[in-house]
Each structure stands twice: as C-alpha cells, then as structure tokens.
Amino acid sequence: MERNLYERLGGEEAIAKVVDYFYNELVLKDASVNHFFKNTDMEKQLLHQTKFISYALGGSRTYEGKSMEKAHGGLNIQPSHFDTIAKHLHDALVHFGVAEGDITEALERVASLKEDIVHK
Ligand code: HEM
C-alpha cells in the first residue's frame, strides 16, 4: 500500500516541528503578515494549525475546528497575504528536507483553501 504524504513526512511529530518552525521562525518574523497574529494565543494556534495541516496532508485525524471561512472572516486577508503564508509553508518544508514533489502536493492542497480564506 502506498503511504500518504502525511505518513511520508513523518506523521504528527514531524508535522508539529514543521508548524512550529513555520510560525515562530518565518511567519512571526515577517512584518508583512505578523500583525494578523498579534492578538492570537499562539499556543492554541499552533495546536490548531498542526491538526489542520495534518488533515490537509492526509493524516488520519479529522479536523474539528472552525471552518476556514469562519476562522478567517473579518481579518481582511488579501491574496498577497495568502501567498506569503504559502511561501513560508514551502520554505519550512524545504528547511526540513521534504522532497520537491511532496512540497508541490502539500501546497496544492493548501491552495485549494484560498477561496475560503481570502477576503471577499
Ligand atoms: C494557508 C492556509 C491556512 C490554513 C490551513 C489556516 C488555518 C487556520 C486554522 C486551523 C486556524 C484556527 C481556527 C480555530 O480557531 O479553530 C486559523 C486561524 C487564524 N488564521 Fe489561518 N490558515 C491559513 C491561512 C492564513 C492566512 C493567509 C492568514 C493571514 C495572513 C491567517 C491568519 C489567521 C489568524 C490571525 C487566525 C486566528 C484568528 C483568531 O485569533 O481567532 N491564516 N488558521
């Protein structure tokens, strides 16, 4: 049986490391997007994001948080902000040595949420 992307990346533990690096080293240090997170409890956010990204990558757990539209509505997120966040996710996966083909697959899944996340 072929393993899915989540399993190939190393499962929950590996994803948690990627998410931690993605947020703390990339997103929160980028002045073009970090203002969105200034009132967010980052500990809670890291947990949510880990679960969500795991789900997006095909992990077995189901995501039980708010819908993407509910979580991001009213934040006035522009397409450029979305692209910046996606780029940070890309760079975080590169940092952990994930293969280019797997990164492309992960970013395609995330991009499918763009419509729900950006401001309309
Ligand atoms: C790339 C795809 C994205 C995914 C998968 C994602 C996922 C999530 C999740 C799972 C939550 C938590 C929802 C909950 O509280 O139950 C959340 C909240 C949040 N997201 Fe995203 N997000 C994405 C893109 C973005 C972008 C582009 C921005 C802004 C530049 C952003 C800003 C935020 C903020 C500020 C919150 C917290 C809102 C609050 O404090 O209640 N997200 N996101």
Automatic annotation (TrEMBL):
The entry's keywords: Heme, Iron, Metal-binding, Oxygen transport, Transport
SUPFAM superfamilies cross-referenced by the UniProt entry: Globin-like
Reported cofactor(s): heme
CDD domains from the UniProt entry: TrHb1_N
InterPro entries in the cross-refs: Globin-like_sf, Globin/Proto, Hemoglobin_trunc, Hemoglobin_trunc_I
Binding site for heme: H48, H72
Gene3D superfamilies (UniProt xref): Globins
Pfam families per record: Bac_globin
Keyword hit for Nucleotide-binding: no
Any one GO molecular-function label of the UniProt entry: heme binding
Note describing how the cofactor binds: Binds 1 heme group per subunit.
Similarity remark: Belongs to the truncated hemoglobin family. Group I subfamily.
Name of the featured protein: Group 1 truncated hemoglobin
